[in-house]
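Section 5: illustrative case.
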């Protein structure tokens, strides 16, 4: 009887579509993103390796800072990609919601058609198409044929809608799987880069600490870790905690980590030139010490809370450097910038302090 209402290929197509849709839903539930070989992640990583055996402490400091900056950039990239993925997931969820709505609408369309077909098949009195051929009531026959025609058209539309729905589901399933695979790949790549950079930074800081210890600079707690300089910037002038100050090879003297490392390199160069190390009488000054110096030397010390000594970026030398235009002073004047150390302009005139030298982080960052 069904062949007389809707062509057999259409009915078969509807059955196939329904079966495929059912299998597709189950397949989507079991779908897993493709596994990415670790080797491909290693090959695709853009992480640069630390140069072997840096020649100076400044190079070690630079490598540690570079690794730390790389960690920050990779972490930001990971967060940004996660946001992009979350946006894509929301869009995908919106499309799946639309599909569920379309499913429901399709079910509403199919229900009355299915009921009518079932009635025609199961009602013995209908007699199939036979009564239409022998009926003497032309009006009833035309009405019945019109109903059958509407039924066939409706079922054809259901088949078309189901086909479109199947294609849309197939596309979204592939899109979802690709999205998951891409997310896992990107997370693995960035995670590998971050882990590699972190290990490089830790190894470099360890090498730096060992090198400083050989020069007599010893303090734990990361005080000489140049990657913590950003944390030191959070403290007010003269209020840096002890774990943010790296000791110098002079009793009681200390500076911020990057300044202390640059000073150590400067000291090595100075000793190589003059056969003896630099001499320092003052370095970091707490706010209390700044107040004492300010009242002891009025007009010759910065206002408490404004001195570069309070930032751990300045030293006062003793020895021949205190003599303006001495050989040692001129040498430091000519070579200090190679290590980030400068004699500020104000110290030439007001007040005149040939012994006062400062570490400039901007100059040091270019080394």
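Designed sequence:
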């Amino acid at each position: 009887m069904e062949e007389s209402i809707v062509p057999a290929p259409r009915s078969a197509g509807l059955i196939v579509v329904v079966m495929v849709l059912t299998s597709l839903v189950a397949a989507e539930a079991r779908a897993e993103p493709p596994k990415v070989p670790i080797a491909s992640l290693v090959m695709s990583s853009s992480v640069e390796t630390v140069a072997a055996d840096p020649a100076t402490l400044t190079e070690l400091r630079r490598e540690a800072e570079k690794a730390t900056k790389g960690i920050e950039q990779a972490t930001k990239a990971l967060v940004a990609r996660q946001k992009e993925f979350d946006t894509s997931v929301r869009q995908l969820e919106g499309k799946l919601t639309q599909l569920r709505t379309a499913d429901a609408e399709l079910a509403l369309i199919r229900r009355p058609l299915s009921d009518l077909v079932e009635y025609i098949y199961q009602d013995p009195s209908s007699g199939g198409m036979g009564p239409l051929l022998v009926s003497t009531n032309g009006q009833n026959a035309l009405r019945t044929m019109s109903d059958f025609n509407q039924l066939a058209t409706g079922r054809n539309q259901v088949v078309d809608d189901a086909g479109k729905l199947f294609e849309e589901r197939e596309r979204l399933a592939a899109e979802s799987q690709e999205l998951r695979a891409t997310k896992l790949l990107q997370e693995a790549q960035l995670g590998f880069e971050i882990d590699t950079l972190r290990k490089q930074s830790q190894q470099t800081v360890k090498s730096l600490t060992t090198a400083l210890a050989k020069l007599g600079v010893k303090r734990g707690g990361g005080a000489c870790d140049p990657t913590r300089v950003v944390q030191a910037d959070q403290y007010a002038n003269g209020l840096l905690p002890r774990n943010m100050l790296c000791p110098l090879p002079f009793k009681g003297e200390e500076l911020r980590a990057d300044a202390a490392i640059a000073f150590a390199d400067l000291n090595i160069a100075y000793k190589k030139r003059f056969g003896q190390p630099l001499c320092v009488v003052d370095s970091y000054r707490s706010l209390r010490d700044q107040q004492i110096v300010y009242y002891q030397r009025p007009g010759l010390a910065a206002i408490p809370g404004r001195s570069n000594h309070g930032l751990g970026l300045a030293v006062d030398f003793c020895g021949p450097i205190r003599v303006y235009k001495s050989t040692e002073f001129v040498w430091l004047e000519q070579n200090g910038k190679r290590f980030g150390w400068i004699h500020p302009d104000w110290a030439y005139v007001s007040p005149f302090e040939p012994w006062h030298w400062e570490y400039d982080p901007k100059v040091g960052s270019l080394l």
